[in-house]
Each structure stands twice: as structure tokens, then as C-alpha cells.
Design brief:
Strand order of the largest sheet: 1-2-3-4
Number of domains: 1
Distance between the termini: 27 Å
CATH topology: Outer membrane efflux proteins (OEP)
CATH architecture: Up-down Bundle
Oligomer: single chain
Structural class: alpha+beta
Shape: elongated
CATH superfamily: Outer membrane efflux proteins (OEP)
Radius of gyration: 37 Å
Helix content: 55-70%
Length: 383
Amino acid sequence: MLAVANNPDLRLARADLGVVHAQAYAADLLPDPQLNLTRDFAAPAVPGTVSAFSLAPSVDLAALIAHPAVQDAARSEARRANLTLLWQEEQTITQARLLFTRAIFQSRQVHLLDQTRAVLDARNQRAQAALARGDLTQDVYAPLRAALEDTEKQRNDLERQSNQMRHELNALLGLAPAINVPLIAGPASAPLNQPALDAALRDLPRRRADLLAFAAGYASQEARLHQAVLAQFPILNLGLSRARDTAGLYTSGFAVGFTLPLFNRNRGNIAIEQATRERMRIEYQNRLDQARSEIDRLEQDLTLAQAQSERLSTSLTGLEAVDAQASTALHGGLIDVLASSSVHLALLAKRAEWLSLQETIAEQRIALAALLGTDPELLQGQQ
């Protein structure tokens, strides 16, 4: 809601939409009739003569005939602009969801790195003491120190990424950079709802805003082609006249003007509008095919990632049991601290791997929902 209401690019897009609506309003208006008035005086003046005048109202019948086609084109164009703005809003919402998801998972990764750093720091201190006593050689100590430094670097890099992510999110929401938006993670995602996904895919051309915008643009182009076809017929201009000459004789009559469709017949413009319509049809089909291909790819990627997540969960359960046994053995004096910390570090590394995979799954769900033109929660089944 914040992204749609405050995003600067969307505010500008809404201003552009006002221009399109004004153009549609202008297209609804009927053309004004014309009035020609002339006045003549005898020079030099001759006794018995009067000033002459001519009054000739006229109306462009061709404009009136083409007016319904002009209206249809403008209204379809306004609908296309509305749907294009809706698609921009949906893309902004998707970007906000992605930034939110990344920020949440980054905070969890920082927490895991803090745990890893604490274990490595404790192990490094013990190793330093052993090195000082001569119980540990330098070649054994060096990898332990390098692991701690590598963890510090990862955490520093992640903090910089998190800072950049929050600034991007604030910019997307139209907020000042100094504002800290509190982010609260939602519940864990449920399995993919396959029937809902299949229904959304079948209904894709009637639900995705950009595809609907293409359809509205095609309808607008169809109206322009109709307008060009109408223009191939004789262009009529009908007028009435009322005149008086210098002798005081009044006359009344009418005038009809039209173009003879002998050579041009507006065939060039008709060909242009037909070619434009065909291009729009091909572009629409390409967009639809591309969307279906991307949806199929993401669906398969999600299936693979979820299967991998299940395997990782099983592996995590086994590592947690080993870590618990190592902790018990440490307290019983059966193993030393270095061995116990190695087991715990392996567990933390596996949790980091699992967390990274969950972020990938969450982002894929958001991308899949955006491609389907629906809400990510509607694609979730029952847990």
C-alpha cells in the first residue's frame, strides 16, 4: 500500500494518465460547425446600390461519420493507459515484496553469522592459547584464524547490502532515507497450491494487466483502421448559403464539397494501420508465449527448490542430533572444544544453506505470482 501510494514514478505515471483521459474527453466532443460571413461594398458608390453580403454555415460530414471510430479509439487508448498504470503498480508491489523478503532474510543471515562468529572467536582464543603454550603449530592455527576473518568479512558485506536494501526500499516507498521502516516477517510459506496455479495460468490473458493493456491497444488500433477505411470514401462538406448582391437581390442555396477518390483513396494510411495492427497482434502473442514460458520455468524451479529444501531439512535434523551428542560428549570430557565447535559450525553452515534456499523459494513465489497477475498468498496451499 505504501509503495502504490507514495512511489514517485507512480505519481508521475498517474499525471500522464490524466493527459490520456483529457484526450479521450476531447475525442468525445463533436466537431464544431463553420460559419463564413462576407460583406462587400460598391466602389465607387453607385446610386441605387446596396452593400452585398454572403452568409454560409457549413458542417464537415466526414468528421461526423468518423466520430464514432475516433471515440472508440480514444476510449480504448484510455483503457490501455489505465491497465498500463495498473501493471506498473503491480510491478512496484512485486519489487517492494522482493526488497522486503531480502531484507528479512538478510537480518536472519546476520544473526546466523553472529552465532558463527561467536563460535569461531571462542575457538580462535583457545587456539591462540594452545599456540602460546606450544601445543599447536602455526600451520594448524592459520586456517582457524582465516575462518574467523572470512566470517567477519561476510558479515560486513552483508551489513552493507542490508543498508543498500533499506535505502532502495525507502526510495520505492517514497520515504526519506533516514526513516527506518520496521519489517515484520510473515508466517512460513505453505506448499504451492497447484490447482490455484493451474486456474491462474488458464485465466492469464484475462487477469494480467499488461496483457489486458495489449488487448485494449489492439482494440484502439482496430478503431484507427476503421477510421482510415472510412476516410477512403468521398469527404463531404455540406453548407447552406444566404446572400445579397449590390442590387439588393437576395439569394439562397447550398454547397456540397467532396474529394474524388480516384488516385489516393487513403490506401497508404489504410496499409499503415493494417501493418500496425498486425505488429500489435504479434507482439501480444509473443508477450503471452513468453509469460507462459517463464511461468513454466519458475514452476519447475520451485518444484526443484522445494525438493531440495526437504532434503536439507532432513540433513539439518540429523546434524542437530549430532550436535546435541557432541555437546553431551564435551560436557562428559569425551571430546575437546575444537571437535565440538567443528560439529556446531557444520550445523550453522547447513542452516545458512537452508536459509539461503528459503530466500530463493520466497523470491520465486513472488516472481511466479507477479507473472500470473495474482497475490502470492493465493498460490499457497494448506500446510
